[in-house]
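Below is how a single chain appears once it has passed through the pipeline. First comes the sequence as given, then the structure the pipeline wrote out for it. We keep one example in the README because the format questions we get most often are answered faster by looking than by reading.
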Amino acid sequence: MGKPLNVGIVGCGKIVEQYLTNFRRLDSIDLVAVADLDPARAQAVADSYEGVRALTVDGLLEANDVDLVLNLTIPAAHADIALKAIAAGKSVYGEKPLAATTEEARQVLDAAKSAGVVVGCAPDTVLGTGIQTARKAIDDDLIGAPISATATMATPGHERWHPNPDFYYQPGGGPLLDMGPYYVSALVTLLGPVVSVVGAASHTRNERTIGSGPREGQKVPVEIDSHVTGVLVHASGALSTLFMSFDAVKTKSSNIEIHGEKGSLAVPDPNHFNGDVQLFALGAEDWETIPASAGYVDSGRGFGIADLAATPAGEEPRAGGELAFHALEVMESVLESARTGQAVSIKSTARRPSAVPLTELATTVRA
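Resulting structure:
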């Protein structure tokens, strides 16, 4: 009925600043409370944002004025916090992935369905003008029937810049589970759900050296495969190839490319909300930049919650639990295929989320 959605945040780590910046702009969201296992971190956030109070985690989950819990905890805690929030009758929006495993993620979705609350999940980058303009180009038949896609993420490792990179190299981490949600969610948004996968993976180093911060020079053990490749078979028949690496130094490839019978698209980084979409049409002499024609303009982390707030009751949000679960199963299955050497069928599906028209949300800069 036009009333802003009251949000409480659990987890006040590095990522929270991006949400705070956008919550200050979004008229449809009121941030009312924050919590963290470190009370000082929660208090620092509360002190920086007018009208927000710092609570314990249990206190926030029990607060009557919190409609939705934004879960910014580490991946291992995603399911636990989500289930507690749902048990308290609150909707949940989580950072990616939805949970550490599909088994835990299924518990979250089943609990939410029983409780009649809504589950949303990052990444909401797929709602920005970059991915949505590419999606509109496909829907407008600019490349004809999609045949294939490539998704490429190459970095020598997050330990070069992250002061506490340990979890990236522990079970539940790695390049696919860390960055894959952006790429797989984008591929499903562009090309539809996945029905089977084949994967392979490698492990090049047993330890990494922290490159910045108070722990600079310390060694971190590597317990996971740090380079993963996979082929995704979409229900449409299109084939997507994933290249996710914490070992490669750099790439000149587009983050995502979509190839069809009438043309090819270069799609911007799915970890960002905007960026140029380029088309090379059959018979053309060069790439053409397509003006932004769909998606939330000037968006950022948190716009997925605004989109959820505007979703009619009973409908699945665009950045919803269904898509997040499907993306998690795809990634989990790529890793399973890499272990077994066998193709893996995907049991879940996700409807291709509805397109986002070119939209400027109502914004007001707040203290």
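The longest strand covers residues 146-154.

See the next section for the split statistics.
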